[in-house]
Design brief:
- This protein is an alpha+beta fold and 189 residues long.
- The protein has one domain (3-38, 53-188).
- It contains seven helices and eight strands; from the N terminus they run βαββαααββββαααβ.
- It has helices at residues 15-21, 74-79, 86-90, 95-98, 156-166, 169-173, 175-179; strands spanning 3-12, 28-42, 54-66, 102-114, 117-126, 130-139, 144-153, 186-188.
- It has an eight-stranded antiparallel β-sheet.
- A hairpin with a 3-residue loop joins strand 5 (117-126) and strand 6 (130-139).
- The longest helix is centred in the C-terminal third of the chain and has 11 residues, at 156-166.
- The chain is globular, with a radius of gyration of 20 Å.
- It starts with a strand and ends with a strand.
- Residues 2-168 form the YhdP central domain.
- InterPro entries: YhdP, YhdP_central.
- This is YhdP central domain-containing protein.
Length: 189
């Protein structure tokens, strides 16, 4: 039986415009970087199906912003740890954090696809709001996922505020301890 095999190497200076050109407008604003990968499936071109495709992709992106991040799930988790917005969090108001999307300074990912199952390997995203690591599996055909997220909210401004309130030179002397707080929730859909 014939095999279809496609390989790509892409470099872009504007990820948002690139995705719009591919028919996916509004997902990402700005961003630059590169991606490499390949996919294959048995049969002719018209025989493509998610259940038969396999492949691999790696991404290395910088300075972009996901246009809209829902305020549920991960968005709510990331915004929970901001001391400056504690009064808003008590009333469960998270709209300020992701109203314009999630900005990232750097995003890297290694993804493997095997018969509609996407394995997220070493997905890491760092931005002003948080440092996020994501790993697990997504079943594209059944639209289900089993993912684990490690989130380190950026609390640099919060540490400054806390050290002022506490009078805490002690806080300032332990920046590695105080700047990052790891949370490892299991997110299942």
């Amino acid at each position: 039986k014939p095999q279809n095999h496609y390989q790509w190497d892409v470099k872009t200076e504007d990820l948002g415009n690139f995705l719009t050109g591919l028919g996916y407008p509004g997902l990402v604003a700005r961003g630059n970087g590169e991606g490499h990968g390949h996919i294959q499936w048995p049969g002719a071109l018209e025989d493509f199906s998610l259940t038969g495709v396999s492949g691999h992709a790696s991404l290395n992106l910088k300075d972009g912003q996901f246009s809209k991040v829902q305020t549920g799930g991960l968005g709510r988790l990331i915004s929970l740890f901001s001391l400056q917005t504690l009064p808003r969090r008590i009333t469960l108001d998270f709209n300020d954090v992701f109203s314009a999307g999630f900005a990232f300074d750097h995003l890297t990912a290694d993804l493997a696809l095997d018969h509609s199952r996407l394995d997220t390997r070493d997905f890491e995203m760092a931005g002003p709001a948080a440092h996020v690591k994501l790993f697990g599996k997504v079943d594209l055909a059944n639209e289900t996922s089993d993912l684990t997220a490690q989130v380190a909210p950026s609390v640099e401004d919060s540490v400054t505020l806390a050290s002022t309130v506490v009078g805490g030179r002690w806080w300032v002397r332990l920046p590695g301890c105080c700047k990052r707080f790891w949370v490892t929730p299991l997110i299942r859909r």
